[in-house]
Amino acid sequence: MDTKIQLSWIAICLFLTLPGAPTHASCPVELNPPRVVVRYGDSVSVNCTTSTEPEGMGWEVTFGGIGLQGNVNFVTWTVGSLMDWTIEPKCYINPQNGSQCTEILPVILYKTPDSVSISPLSHSGPMIEGKEYQLQCDIQNIAPLQNLVVRWYKGNETIETQTFNDSTKKPVNMSSTLTLTHRSYEGEVEYRCEAELDLGPEEPKPTALSSKPLNVTVYSHTNKSTTPTAKSLTTADARWDEPFNYDYYFLRVVGLSMAATLFILGIMVISCE
Known about the structure:
The chain is α+β, with helices and mostly antiparallel strands. It contains two helices and 18 strands. It has helices at residues 3-17, 246-272, and strands at residues 29-32, 36-39, 44-50, 56-60, 66-70, 74-79, 90-94, 101-104, 107-110, 115-121, 127-128, 132-142, 148-154, 157-163, 172-181, 187-197, 209-210, 214-219. Strands 11, 13, 14, 16, 17 and 18 form a six-stranded mixed β-sheet that branches. A four-stranded antiparallel β-sheet has the order 5-4-7-8, with no helix packed on it.
């Protein structure tokens, strides 16, 4: 190897090993648990430990913060009732040699909905096959939105699942819309929607909250709102689906009227004789 190149490599190596040289090592602390998922108002406790012997360490956080503690290798952050939706706890250490470093604790604060309800959107009464309709699911006071899953059911069958790409952390009211078209006469159909928070495979699984069922009557396109209900519609009621023949009934009425007139004239003639 050329002497100049060899000297250059030696100079670089010496620079990297000098005290205070830049490194890419992460902060030497361990959080236990490494991530917190907690229901709004519940307690939380997280331990921060280091394998080094720092000058001091502590927690920087809006609630339950711990100032610099010397001659320790762990500090515990504890809150009896967590109610800060934007909290971002940081464990920090001051090494013997070097600058302070921090480790952020990911926190998910969640709240299940107060209520879930379902209703028709922009229509009332029965539905007609072949036409497009919308149902709306209203979810009250839920957080966080990015963990919300809404499932739509037709009877016991899941027909649609919706998620939300929204970073809002505080509780909000949310609506989900289902667009549907019935392709055939179905009589009475039951719909409902369900709201659930998916917080991860190893995290708490809050109970899903379901709306009350919405019963919808579906008629064929020839039926009207005055058609007998699906439960009472029998073979004898098939005449409601047949087209109304105005010419036939007009001629029938005219004929009956003429017959009645002739009958009355006949009686009058006999009376005169």
